[in-house]
Amino acid sequence: MLAAGRLYSRPIRHSLRVHRSRGSCLRLGPVTAGGHVVVLRPPRFSDVEAWRSIRLRDRCLIEPFWLSSTLSWEERHSDRAWMEEVLSGRANARVGRSLSLVIEVDGAFAGQFNLERIDTGARSAEIGAWLDSTLAGRWIMRAAGQLLADHAFGSMGLRRITAPVCVDNVAAALAVRHFGMCREGTMASYLDVGGRRMPHDLWAITADTWVATAGRSSAAG
Description:
Layout: H1 4-9, H2 12-22, E1 28-33, E2 36-41, H3 48-57, H4 59-62, H5 79-94, E3 99-105, E4 108-119, E5 124-131, H6 140-155, E6 160-166, H7 170-179, E7 182-193, E8 196-206, H8 207-220
Parallel strand pairs: 5-6
Antiparallel strand pairs: 1-2, 2-3, 3-4, 4-5, 6-8, 7-8
């Protein structure tokens, strides 16, 4: 876990420059969770079949909380859609706007964990994630979140990370709570997901809270 001295000693300008130059080859981990090896790394074109297979199979769990679209779920998971997502992620990483990562479990694609809306002035960002439902309940998402938080609050020098969670998404709310986030309030009619405009709870964690939580975890271990 991060030490407080390491967290605050990195100049923010240097940290963001490193983030932009290394985004395409970044690799976080490995760590072990529930007997599985977890890594975060950039998406590849070759991930398309695994991405599509999981997303189509888990449609009923993902679509109700995903941004609405005029395209069908199948059309949203074409080869072209994945290629555009990968290219867009690389372009945004180069300018420090976002960081798109794949959750890799035991060497296989298992989901995504993105750091979005990166604001270098406010030193804040927003997270979004999803995981293969067959791996739920094995602490994998929590391990992935810890890897990303260590990087965001450490190497990138961010001070605050938020997560908007649909009020109906009980599983996601539980995940961010385990991650150490606190609910700050409810945003009425915040996003159009699953074909309807829905309120979302705003969850957040700061660098100070993360360091304190990491310190308690290390002491307990």
